[in-house]
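Budget justification note: compute hours in this period were largely spent on complex prediction jobs such as the one shown. Inputs:
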Amino acid sequence: MGDLMTMAVQPRHLKLGLAGQHKNWVYAKFELNELRNAFARIARTLPTYGAKDTATMVTAMISQQIVTLQEAIAAGDAKQFKRSYEQLTDACNSCHVALNHPTLVMKVPDQNTFPNQDFWPKKKP
Ligand code: HEC
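Corresponding output:
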């Protein structure tokens, strides 16, 4: 679970945050979908974690926050994105607490560690 989180979820969460900070809604939509797929892949790969059903936990802990963020992206609303992204990040941490890993604390990114990727929206031709 830790490997999949580090490889599939953590970079998507970061890139999604950067996409929103750059108001790049087309890319944010893509990246949110990647994040949603990453959770689905984790649930398929590891159907249970401890005694808990992974898919049920993902749905209970974070799917509502993903929908809310999707609405903010569709509306192209930077304020709503910021709020929803914070709620998404809180949901990451709630699940870590619920699954006995309170030391795994995620936060809204304050740095871009992908210097080889352009996060600005493409200009319309
Ligand atoms: C369904 C519950 C759940 C949700 C939702 C969840 N996580 Fe996790 N995450 C875990 C569990 C459980 C672990 C510990 C895995 C292990 O035992 O190796 C973990 C581990 C991690 C790790 C590895 C920590 C490390 O330093 O090695 C990262 C990074 C991480 N999660 C990021 C996130 C992010 C970002 C989100 C939100 C977008 C998120 N997680 C949402 C359950 C969850």
